[in-house]
Amino acid sequence: MITIVIVSCYLIALLWAVVKNINYWEIYKHGYRPDEWYMYFTNTINSLIMVGCWSGVYFGIKNFQMLQKEKQNALKASTMAHQAHIKMLRYQLNPHFLFNTLNAISTLILLKENDTAEAMVSRLSNFLRYSLDNDPIKRVPLGQEIKALRLYLEIEKVRFDDRLEVLWDIDEGCESALVPSMILQPIIENSIKHAISKMENGGRISITARTFGNDLLMDVADNGPGADIKDGTLSRENGVGLANIKERLQSLYHRNFAFSIEHNQPSGVRVRIRIPYEVKDV
Prior knowledge:
Blueprint: H1 2-28, H2 44-90, H3 95-110, H4 114-133, E1 139-141, H5 142-160, E2 164-170, E3 178-180, H6 185-194, E4 203-212, E5 215-222, E6 229-230, E7 233-234, H7 241-253, E8 258-263, E9 269-276
Parallel strand pairs: 2-4
Antiparallel strand pairs: 1-3, 4-5, 5-9, 6-7, 8-9
Helix pairs in contact: 1-2, 2-7, 3-4, 4-5
């Protein structure tokens, strides 16, 4: 390939040298023509250097454009893969919640508690609409997320009645903070499954949010029987809920976040999340 390029450049340089010499003789020597044929090819080296320089510039620009295009394609592919990965993590909700809710609605209908069943269907519809309509790539205000969590907890309260107590402690100003959609729901679902449902007299879930400097701090804690925690991971966790949260945070915030699972006092499990405090531009 290099040989072909060099030969092509040399032939072009020869042709260019001939044209330059003829033009020079025609204009400045009034139609002079040399007696020897090789005189037509004088200054070929200078022409070859010029052709080589222009060829180098041309191929350099084309190579740069090709590399930039490949870089853009690779970046686009990486972005699409990144977004697809986040969406996959976001939509891996525990189907047990839906099954349990539908079973509870069926039970309410059998018990002729139609008003409660209708309210539960409405809440379930609104909750599922929220969970599916919000793009997992984008962030939503915490206040909007809390409204969806209230819908979810109202559905669960129909199942657990007085056995489920929920405490909210959301500092003023936090509701406008942007958070990944459905980031707290798997934590609360995990608490209900492994804490509230295991306690005969029910239990309590505390949800707090506050700002600290340039960060937003969110906690979800229960007073259940607790769990074995090894290296910040629940040994009982065999699903995708909590693992997905950490992966989503990693994808969205890279290293600028914290996610920890620890023992609650006096009993239970506490999950802490720290992310940058950001608000939507007006």
